[in-house]
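pipeline/complex-builder :: batch 7 item 3
reading input block
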Amino acid sequence: DAGVTQSPTHLIKTRGQQVTLRCSPKSGHDTVSWYQQALGQGPQFIFQYYEEEERQRGNFPDRFSGHQFPNYSSELNVNALLLGDSALYLCASSLEGPAVYGYTFGSGTRLTVV
Amino acid sequence: QKEVEQDPGPLSVPEGAIVSLNCTYSNSAFQYFMWYRQYSRKGPELLMYTYSSGNKEDGRFTAQVDKSSKYISLFIRDSQPSDSATYLCAMGIIQGAQKLVFGQGTRLTINP
């Protein structure tokens, strides 16, 4: 049973560019959350998608946007990249409900902005 | 002030030692508490979760929550080199908010 799959694993972008990260949730999961983890820091909540809609959003600017598809997979888009956007981006999938019921995290996409 | 504070370490101990990892929090609305382990170049994996004050044991791991002091701990007994990882505490609220709030993480090394 495949867990959460994220692509690409690594990415280097130039300041000002746009990037799209992808996530396939664990089989049977219908909710996808995205987190940003800067080096040496804990993950920070970006937003959560359920039934193809953004259900909750963390303290991130509108440059960060997302999408969930009918097959529950999800994309994270970041526009006008800044150096400070360099981080590990984690996708977590779960069944609908509070996070207490269990997130499964992917291994992340390492984004470097130069 | 951050909602969740965790000593980032790094922490280095000999194999077999008892390890104590700690977090404090400021938001009294937090209802459940988790510990995640994150190996290098991997995503976090859930180790333990608990809802109430007190202790919860799972093998060599014990999670402790003191809601009155807003303080949680993870104890690792008979530590092994394979326990070397970053440990993250995380907290959440059951109703409404779906997100987890994480601590900074403590990098732990167990030396053979």
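note: Chain B touches chain A at residues 4, 6, 8, 32, 34, 41-46, 49, 51, 88, 90, 92-95, 97-105 (CB under 8 Å).
queue -> next item
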